[in-house]
Amino acid sequence: SSRVVEIQSQMSERAVELLGLPEDRPCLLLDVGCGSGLSGDYISEEGHYWIGMDISSAMLDVAVEREAEGDLLLADVGHGIPFRPGTFDGCISISAVQWLCNADKKSHSPPKRLYRFFSTLYTALVRGSRAVLQLYPENSEQLELITAQAMRAGFTGGMVVDYPNSAKAKKFFLCLFVGTSGTLPKGLGTESAAEEMHQAKFTNERARFRTAKGKSVKKSRDWILEKKERRRRQGREVRADTKYTGRKRRPRF
């Protein structure tokens, strides 16, 4: 649909903007999960060159049909980026990298596939360049897994969150630096840097709020879990614990 195309184009534009490319010369970019070449169109319009990788031959067929200007490669990025060191001046990816978190085959290990992707990507990029990967994470654990593997592979940088306070417009861009740690760009629609840091920090550690007496704060998740545990020990019937246990309800839908 045209709406999807429009969103895809906006995100491509934003990703290229976050790359901070030099304006005086054309660059060669890698587009990971290039699909039918929509991001590539924007890269070409900006006067740069690109090579696109995608796991779907059907999507690449569409790119060929549309006469996309980039070179296309049918490949699974979970097996690595098969290019010589320092080939690319930058890398973008629009809503693709989260798929590496899925184990489609028995042999697939998401952390290994992510590490293989990031370590070979790191090598394929010129020192001082960036990779900007827009993704739709399922949860904070996924974001942490992806970010941790990127850092393990040598990248610096982190998550840039555009419009963090909007349910619809909120977008995650993993902005990675190669060999030099730049300053992380500001997310769009963030009032202050402090708020953004708060927004972009994902943690799955449950802070145990306890009063001086060592008891959990009343009505907190921990307090509820402890109370349920006590009731179970008393042999009462208690609902199973889920991720919703102790979760505050929104005041409205």
Automatic annotation (TrEMBL):
It catalyses: a guanosine in 18S rRNA + S-adenosyl-L-methionine = an N(7)-methylguanosine in 18S rRNA + S-adenosyl-L-homocysteine. Keywords: Cytoplasm, Methyltransferase, Nucleus, S-adenosyl-L-methionine, Transferase. Residues 210-253 are annotated as: Disordered. S-adenosyl-L-methionine-dependent methyltransferase that specifically methylates the N(7) position of a guanine in 18S rRNA. Requires the methyltransferase adapter protein TRM112 for full rRNA methyltransferase activity. Involved in the pre-rRNA processing steps leading to small-subunit rRNA production independently of its RNA-modifying catalytic activity. Important for biogenesis end export of the 40S ribosomal subunit independent on its methyltransferase activity. Locus-specific steroid receptor coactivator. Belongs to the class I-like SAM-binding methyltransferase superfamily. BUD23/WBSCR22 family. Heterodimer with TRMT112; this heterodimerization is necessary for the metabolic stability and activity of the catalytic subunit BUD23. Interacts with GRIP1. This is 18S rRNA (guanine-N(7))-methyltransferase. It comes from Dryobates pubescens (Downy woodpecker). The lineage of its organism: Eukaryota, Metazoa, Chordata, Craniata, Vertebrata.
